[in-house]
Design brief:
The protein contains 4 helices and 20 strands. It is α+β, with helices and mostly antiparallel strands and 359 residues long. The protein folds into 3 domains: 89 residues, conserved putative lor/sdh protein from methanococcus maripaludis s2 fold (Beta Barrel), CATH 2.40.420.20; 93 residues, Elongation Factor Tu (Ef-tu), domain 3 (Beta Barrel); 114 residues, Beta Barrel (OB fold (Dihydrolipoamide Acetyltransferase, E2P)), CATH 2.40.50.100. A 6-stranded antiparallel β-barrel has the order 3-10-13-12-11-14. Strands 7-6-4-9 form a 4-stranded antiparallel sheet, with no helix packed on it.
């Protein structure tokens, strides 16, 4: 081995030994010193205050509105339509004309019956005068009286047939679309239009059997519909079915709801909240509650520190949750950033926090 090769090996080996010694010495010197870590930055969050408010215990169901009275308008006789007295969607009163049929023959029959009645009346009156003078037998008087009664009955019959040529509203309500035209031939199978009594309106829905003992006439209800999103429809239970469906284990309920101006139609789909009872409770926004399995918790904020608190939930009411255990009135809870929060984490509530705390 040459001298140069030996010298190169010695230099490389010395450098390796020197580097190892320096690495070991630095580790020994720094072993007892604490490592500097950056402090955790407060998490920005939004908060809300726990408030006390009236809480309704409700049962939700879906139902369909129905008219309190509803009929298909038809005639009892056949004939040609002479006049239509209504427009689609018109409100009518009981007894208002809806349709008139051609009634010329019936009017002639009434006129004839009136004339025959007048003739029979005159004969009967003359006979009574003669009977007072004892110039007519009682049997003849009785016969004239019978003829007068027969003539009167014939007039009543003719007048009834004339009335049958007029279709009237059987009750107050709103008429539907016209299914016939002027001059059309109709009979008792032709539906001229529909008539619905819409004020008040009824709504029918089904409720699970477990609530059978809690719902009865007068129980308040609150209905909402996508067709009228900004309108709350108030009412109360009118009747409860006496039977429970053995298949669905539910029973039918009919409620009567307000319908000023007959604005709501029959057949409308609606969500119904049956208000069973009302009490005062603690409420927080739904987004403040985190549920894991069967347990729920919130993050209570105090001195800009988040503390995880297990809570027991009650009724859910329009975006809020009732808290039965775990919080007190006036507590402040986080409503955003819950996925990043941990127990004891520092937080930086947003500008709304001061307003929530002072509210």
């Amino acid at each position: 081995m040459s001298v140069l090769r030996q010298l190169f090996i010695l230099i490389v080996g010395g450098a390796a030994v020197t580097g190892a010694w320096l690495w070991y010495a630095e580790g020994v010197l720094t072993a007892g010193k604490p490592t500097a870590t950056p402090s955790a930055a407060p998490l920005p969050i939004e908060v809300a205050r726990v408030v006390t408010r009236s809480v309704r215990s409700v049962v939700e169901a879906v139902g369909t509105t129905r008219a309190s009275q509803s009929v298909d308008v038809v005639t009892t006789v056949s004939g040609r339509i002479a006049k239509i007295h209504f427009e689609a969607g018109q409100r009518v009163k009981q007894g208002d004309f809806l349709v008139s049929l051609d009634d010329a023959p019936e009017r002639a029959a009434v006129a004839e019956a009136e004339a025959l009645l007048e003739e029979a009346r005159l004969h009967y009156e003359r006979g009574r005068q003669l009977a007072l003078k004892q110039t007519m037998a009682q049997a003849q008087i009785d016969e004239l009286r019978a003829q007068h009664l027969v003539a009167k009955a014939r007039l009543d019959n003719a007048a009834s047939r004339l009335r049958d040529r007029e279709v009237r509203a059987p009750f107050d309500g709103v008429v539907g679309l016209r299914n016939v035209s002027l001059g059309a031939w109709v009979d008792d199978k032709t539906v001229i239009t529909t008539l619905d009594a819409l004020s008040p309106l009824e709504i029918e829905f089904s409720v699970p059997e477990v609530f059978f003992s809690e719902i009865g006439p007068g129980t308040p209800v609150l209905a909402t519909s996508d067709a009228f999103p900004d309108r709350d429809i108030h009412g109360s239970v009118k009747t409860v079915d006496s039977r429970i469906d053995p298949v669905t284990r539910s029973f039918r309920v009919r409620a009567e709801i307000d319908n000023p101006g007959s604005l709501l139609p029959a057949g409308l789909f609606a969500t119904v909240a049956i208000i069973l009872k009302q009490h005062v409770g603690l409420l927080v926004p739904e987004q403040a509650v985190v549920t894991e399995g069967r347990s729920s918790f919130v993050f209570r904020i105090a001195d800009n520190v988040a503390r995880r608190v297990t809570v027991r939930l009650g009724q859910r009411v329009f975006g809020e949750v009732e808290i039965l255990e775990g919080l007190a009135e006036g507590d402040v809870v986080a409503t955003t950033g819950l996925q990043r929060l941990r127990d004891g984490a520092p937080v930086a509530p947003g500008p709304e926090a001061a307003a929530a705390a002072a509210d």
